[in-house]
Amino acid sequence: GFIQTSGSSIVKSNSRFVFPPYETLDDTIIYEAGGRPFNTNSSDAKVVTACLVAGLFPNIARSLPGGGGKGPAKLATMDGSMVEIHPSSVLARQSGVPPLYCYVDKIKTSAIFLREVTSVTPFHVVLFGSVDLTYLSNYDELVLDNALTFKCSSDEAMLLKSIKDQFAGALRTKINDPSVSWESVASTVIKAILRLLKDEGRGTKAMIVVDKGERKGLTSNLKPPVSAPTPSSPAAVSYTHLRAHETPEHLVCRLLLEKKKTEDKCRNIRE
What we know:
By secondary structure, this protein is α+β, with helices and mostly antiparallel strands. The protein contains 7 helices and 14 strands. The chain starts with a strand and ends with a helix. Residues about 1-10 and about 215-225 have low confidence and may be disordered.
């Protein structure tokens, strides 16, 4: 928020703010930053979660296959640590196991636990947390920072990368010139992001988290395997075989080449 000291004139009307001002022990009055235009989506949990991912990344964990039964859910963080949700967390007691989590603390007691955990979606992580996006067309997978992998089509990957690049460009423009209107540089891309987050039911069903252990070759050589020569492929033959099947045209060409080689050799000897 922004600060107003007790000696300054106090704003009498707070109608332009969503929340009332706070007064600290030293009589400093603190108002929320931005006012209503910056809090348009403050009541939408999906948008607020996107802000959490942007601030806490790379504190992201994914559910491992086979977890979430009678025992605690098994998770893996982006650095490869095997972790569990702390028993004090609300999500530790829920029945379903979300595919992705965002967390604040990672502590080690009897095991490695995550605290202050929030379930997130692939869109949250791809749009607000990733640094590098690589699409593997051989597998129809989008790889995020070489740590998380999502199943999606090439069209979906292209759309997400385009939105992410436009959003990053708008942020750079605003940072370099704060006087630029945010609506003029990011109105369209913000609407697209809000639409994706709020209508995530259709999109996230197609974008599922892929476990690297389910198949081989995710980070190995992606070149197609070398196939064995087919019967139609030309096979190596001997020089005698070629001479036996030489046509008159081939014979003339060969003799001319041999004559040229002989002349060049003689010329080199004389020199």
